[in-house]
Amino acid sequence: MSPVGEGFPKRLRVRRRREYLAVQRSTHRVVTPHFIVYGRKSGRAMTRLGITVSRKVGKATVRNRVKRLCREAFRRNRDALPSGLDLVLVARSGRPATVQQVVVDELVDAAGRVMQSGGRRRRRRR
Q: Domains along the chain?
């Protein structure tokens, strides 16, 4: 069992498809070497995280490791992340992140850039 305050309860996860789509359709996106991070201000007091890792990233063991590293980075660094965001991490194909500190650095940096609205603005397709 994890120590108090280091769990990943359901209230801290983006869980439903419509929530993932709403975040991914938002205008804030930050591209890092290993992830595309979509973010949206949620109006909640806490930051929530969703993770997407497709088969293009690698076999099941690689995908599971990437997801595990992302969850761990989020759990251990919640205090360093701005509050009130919904974040979706999409692992980039062919670039699995395998080092914990790299994931932490990219997550904290990307969340800060999304909060400052410094992420690249996406054009809406009509």
A: 10-116 (3.30.230.10)
**CA distances, 107 to each of 2, 32, 50, 89 (Å):** 21, 9, 12, 8
Q: Give per-residue pLDDT as tens, 77-111.
A: 988 998 889 999 999 998 788 899 999 999 999 99
Closest C-alpha to 12, from 78, 90, 91: 78
Residue 117 neighbours by CB under 8 Å, 6+ apart: 28
Stretch 73-77: mean pLDDT, rounded? 93
The confidence band for 119, taking pLDDT boundaries of 50, 70 and 90, is very low
Contacts of 122 (CB under 8 A, 6+ apart): 27, 29
